[in-house]
Amino acid sequence: MNKKASQRNQILIDLIHQKKWPYLGAIISVGIASYFMFLVPTIGKLVIDRVITEPRVHNGDKIDAVISWVGGPDALANQLWLAGLAIVIVTALSGLFMYLKDYLAAGACETTVRELRNKLYHHLHHIDERYLNNADSGDILQRCTSDIDTLREFLTMQVMNIGRTIILMAVVIPLMFMQNAWLTVLSLILVPVVLYYGMVFFVKVRELFQKVDEAEGELTTIVQENLTGIRVVRAFARQDYECEKFDEKNARYSDLNYKLICMFANFWSLSDLLCIAQSGIVLIGGGWLTAQGHISFGTYFAFIGYTNLLIWPIRQLGKELSEAGKATVAIGRIQEILEAPEEEELQNVTPLPDRIMGAIKFENIHFQYDKDRPVLTDVSFDVAPGETIAIVGPTGAGKSTLIQLLMRLHDYEQGSISVDGIELSSIARKDIRHQIGTLLQEPFLFSRSLRENIKFSHLEASDGAMVHSTTAAAVHHTIESFQGGYSTVIGERGVSLSGGQKQRVTLSRTLLNTPPILVLDDTLSAVDASTEQKIISALHEKKGEQTLLIITHRISVCQKADRIIVMQDGRITDQGTHNELTHRDGFYNELWEIQSDQKDQFESEIKVTV
Ligand SMILES: Nc1ncnc2c1ncn2[C@@H]1O[C@H](COP(=O)(O)OP(=O)(O)OP(=O)(O)O)[C@@H](O)[C@H]1O
């Protein structure tokens, strides 16, 4: 067994081990139920041999004692309903223990799967940023939903059925041998073939299952992407193109499923044939042995019953094993996520006060995502507590990366970053993130009420504080104009709000928490100039209370900053106030001239029109 397979088994063993007592109870119940199942044909045999047929068998054993107790063979022959009642009672007891098995197993399985789901969800929230950047969200979604369901089915159905069949064989086969060894051999002669065929099928089908799962993942990804980006598709009138792409994936998924169904059809028909052949062998062989007087008629009757009792579950074993193949693929895929590294946490972290001052220092920072592709080179700058810094630069200059390093979404390898004089790499990730409020380029809102979305940053905040933050973000009146006000539930990713409204809601969410450091990553790009000014003024009211880093392309925002940092190609190429930078050549001055020209042109066009 290779390492991966043994790790997969280990996950399963660990999961089952956590609930060993209910599982053990289920196994014992199956054992008892199997014994009662064995008793049904055995009662038939005893009645035939000791009551119905002549000459009657007398062994002087406990069975004879029971027969005498109910009035002897003749009396029993006149009251055969008693034997029928015994069969009903034994069958009912067998059913009762099977129910107990299902009850214990279902409880244990559900808890096991729920714990695994929680473990996976918790892990996803702590997984390393690099893994998330490269991961395919549709695929992860599938692993967390349908793969978990496959595993659940495996634990509730397959493990129990496989266990049940093995226990049934372990209980019934020795009891059959005790009655007649040759007939037992005859009754089981095709069992190895049925089992082997099931195992071969199981190995073959596993590979195909993996392909089907992958194809399903691709299909989920394409649906999810298209739902998220449906407006982009419509804007470019690319519906047909996307439908074609979907059809391709859909066809592949269907073809693979069809192949799988065909394989199963072959398996069922051939295994049915094998099972019927096994029953036929017992019928013919047992009939001959009875005719020759080697076995009693009752034994013949009982062995037909035993064979039927065993062969069908054994045939089912092939199916269960093949389903188990599907589960091992699912476990492997879940395991891949569980093995993805989590964000590393330090053993000895430097604790932060409840509220830091907000001083930031970058010293000779070098950083790259991929080998030999430097994104930040020798970046150094200082920010005093309460200072407002604007960061400008062309696209791809590394501005967002700077912020991601500050939030410890990635770790720097060269240089130093400190917050209030404490080296960032010695601070726990969650501690530093508590101190920084961030508004990312892409506003994200949950499909919950506006109130829940805004209070996400500060769950205990009062409604008054919430209204204060929405007023500062210039969105309070918009929210009040909705029929449901703050209770309005917004669609997935806030689709019922405009881009600017979404940004303002996310801004109010960040403002509610008043963290000592606030970062706006190109957040104001989707709001109009007057709203932008309102928001900037609101932020300026708190000037000095929090350190403000604003990544922006707008000169109007930079003008209000204490200092502007200019970034180009991963380096800081200039810094200073608006006045200083507009009096020397460089990127900022060019940006200023372009935006001033545009403003002048716009104003003169308005004058002409008026
Ligand atoms: N997760 C990532 N993995 C690999 N490369 C990345 C990743 N994120 C960003 N980059 C690369 O790093 C460089 C800097 O990206 P960054 O997002 O920091 O730029 P930016 O200045 O914020 O750009 P913009 O103004 O367009 O947002 C770019 O070349 C980008 O392709």
UniProtKB/TrEMBL annotation:
This is ABC transporter ATP-binding protein. Residues 24-326 form the ABC transmembrane type-1 domain. Pfam families: ABC_membrane, ABC_tran. The chain crosses the membrane at residues 21-40, 80-100, 159-177, 183-203, 267-289, 295-314. One of its GO terms (molecular function) is ATP binding. It is found in: Cell membrane. Keywords: ATP-binding, Membrane, Nucleotide-binding, Transmembrane, Transmembrane helix.
